[in-house]
Structure formats: C-alpha cells, structure tokens
Design a protein that fits this description.
By secondary structure, this protein is an alpha+beta fold. It has three helices and five strands; from the N terminus they run E-E-H-E-H-H-E-E.
Amino acid sequence: MLRLPPTVKTLNFKLRHYRVGQPLDLTPNEYRLLSVLLKRPGRVYSRDALLDQLYDTDHEASDRSIDSHIKNLRKKLAVIKPDQTLIHSIYGVGYKLEVE
C-alpha cells in the first residue's frame, strides 16, 4: 500500500502536482483517469468502465488506449514514489489504485 502525501490529492482540482518544485504534467485523459481511480481506491475498474468515464459515447476508442494511458500515468506517478506501484493491473479484469 502507498500512503499518498496530502499534496497528491490536489490532482482532483488541477492538472499539475508539484514535488520538490518540479511539475508533474498530466494530459486531460490522464487527469480524468486518475480522478476516477482516486474516487474509489481499491475498486477494480474494467477497461470498458474506464473508457466510459474518459470518452463520450460518440467517441470510438480501443480499450487498449486505456493501457496506454495507464502506462503513461504510471511513469509520471513514479516521480512521487519510485519504489512503489500505485496503479495495479488485475489480469483479465482491469486496473485498480491502491492507497493507504
């Protein structure tokens, strides 16, 4: 489990997180994805459920686009806790965020 610093919760309100004076820039989709995961830590979300949260019904996106967003988000979040994984893959199901 990862204990998030209080400043990480600011991701709910802005697209930047500052740690030791360096910005962590998130794309709008990364921000929305992280916001969804932060609302219910520990819940496993399927790729389809995450797609529904990120895109409107008119947008056609592959469920593999979620994999790409997760990969990029993990890299960016590694700045906060490089020795821990915040977003976990649940084989055959989807993804979950683990926080303490």
